[in-house]
Design brief:
Radius of gyration: 29 Å
Strand content: under 5%
Shape: rod-shaped
């Protein structure tokens, strides 16, 4: 009887050790898989945050305005004067800003949501239409570019306010998920936003 109890005790201890080791190994692998998954999500979230910050920095440059008459009396309110976005100072500044938009799209597009990309495409299209309508090209006098800036400032400001509100909402939203820029939803969203910001 004494030998039986020792055998049972030894089998119980060994089986408990084996089960404990097996359970630890399984739970460790599950925890490791969860950590890998969350680490991957964190890397994607960091890239998405960088992309949103790039877009926000780009669109906030529109807020820099210049007066049509820079030698205006300092006692007058500068908001009473005619103003235009600083990127419409001359044709080289205009095309530099437009090229920067292409660069922003190249860098940030894979990590942006559909609506942000649609806003950027709509603005790119708007600026190209503006350049064509106002005949902004090589050798265009600064006066014509600035006049176009004054004329279209409200539309440009409207776009900037809408995308700024959307980007801030995206930055404050957590967690982020990547979205595909294909399919019916993308096509409908893109066409709706582009129609909203067409040159009038």
């Amino acid at each position: 009887m004494d030998g039986l109890n020792w055998n049972q005790l030894l089998i119980g201890v060994l089986s408990g050790s084996v089960l404990s080791g097996l359970g630890s190994w399984l739970f460790y692998n599950q925890r490791l898989a969860r950590e890998r998954k969350s680490g991957g999500k964190k890397m994607i979230a960091d890239e998405m945050l960088k992309a949103l910050e790039i877009v926000r920095d780009y669109e906030r440059k529109i807020r820099t305005i210049e007066n049509v008459w820079p030698d205006m009396d300092a006692t007058k309110d500068p908001f009473d004067a005619l103003a235009y976005p600083a990127f419409m100072f001359d044709q080289s500044a205009f095309y530099s800003y437009l090229n920067e938009l292409g660069h922003v799209l190249d860098i940030a597009e894979p990590y942006l949501d559909r609506k942000t990309v649609a806003y950027l495409y709509a603005f790119q299209r708007y600026l190209l239409s503006l350049a064509q309508a106002e005949r902004i090209g090589e050798g265009t006098p600064e006066v014509i570019v600035r006049q176009a800036g004054v004329t279209h400032k409200t539309e440009i400001d409207r776009w900037q306010k809408h995308i700024d509100a959307h980007v801030v909402k995206c930055i404050n939203r957590h967690p982020w998920k990547l979205q595909s820029l294909s399919g019916l939803r993308w096509g409908l969203l893109r066409s709706r936003i582009i129609k909203k910001y067409q040159l009038q």
